[in-house]
């Protein structure tokens, strides 16, 4: 992952052509992550604003790391990363 110094808003992210976010469990021992379509979040919302709202479905950790997904969307999902953080 490239380092990302500042948490941007979803509007800024969309201006860069990014439509998805990667959501990482805060517990490094867990390592669970998932992708989410970012269309449902308003332009003024910062990625950091939504981080406390996630709870890991694997380990129960509250809070997540939300980063822009600069990779193009892939069809299908690899086994092992299908669990949702919601
Ligand atoms: Zn976890």
Short key terms for the protein model shown above:
three-stranded antiparallel β-sheet, 3 strands, binds zinc ion, single chain
Protein architecture, described:
- This protein has 86 residues and is an alpha+beta fold.
- The mean pLDDT is 84.
- The protein starts with 9 loop residues before the first helix and ends in an 18-residue tail after the last strand.
- Strand 1 and strand 2 form a beta hairpin.
- The protein is globular and about 35 Å long.
- The longest helix has 6 residues, at 10-15.
- It has helices at 10-15, 47-50, and strands spanning 20-25, 33-37, 64-68.
- The chain is built from two helices and three strands.
- The protein has a three-stranded antiparallel beta sheet.
- The protein has a domain at 10-68.
Number of helices: 2
| Class from helix and strand fractions | alpha+beta
Determine the mean pLDDT. Answer: 84
Outline type: globular
Q: Topology of this structure?
A:
Elements: H1 10-15, E1 20-25, E2 33-37, H2 47-50, E3 64-68
Antiparallel strand pairs: 1-2, 1-3
The protein binds zinc ion (ZN).
In a nutshell, what does this entry contain?
With 86 residues, this protein is an alpha+beta fold. It has two helices and three strands; from the N terminus they run αββαβ.
């Amino acid at each position: 992952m490239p380092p990302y110094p500042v948490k941007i808003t979803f509007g800024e992210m969309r201006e860069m052509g990014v439509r998805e976010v990667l959501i990482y469990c805060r517990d490094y021992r867990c390592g669970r992550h998932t992708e989410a379509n970012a269309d449902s979040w308003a332009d003024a919302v910062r990625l950091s604003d939504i981080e406390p709202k996630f709870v890991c479905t694997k380990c129960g950790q509250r809070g997540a790391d939300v980063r822009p997904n600069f990779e193009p969307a892939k069809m299908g999902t690899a086994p092992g990363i299908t669990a949702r953080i919601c």
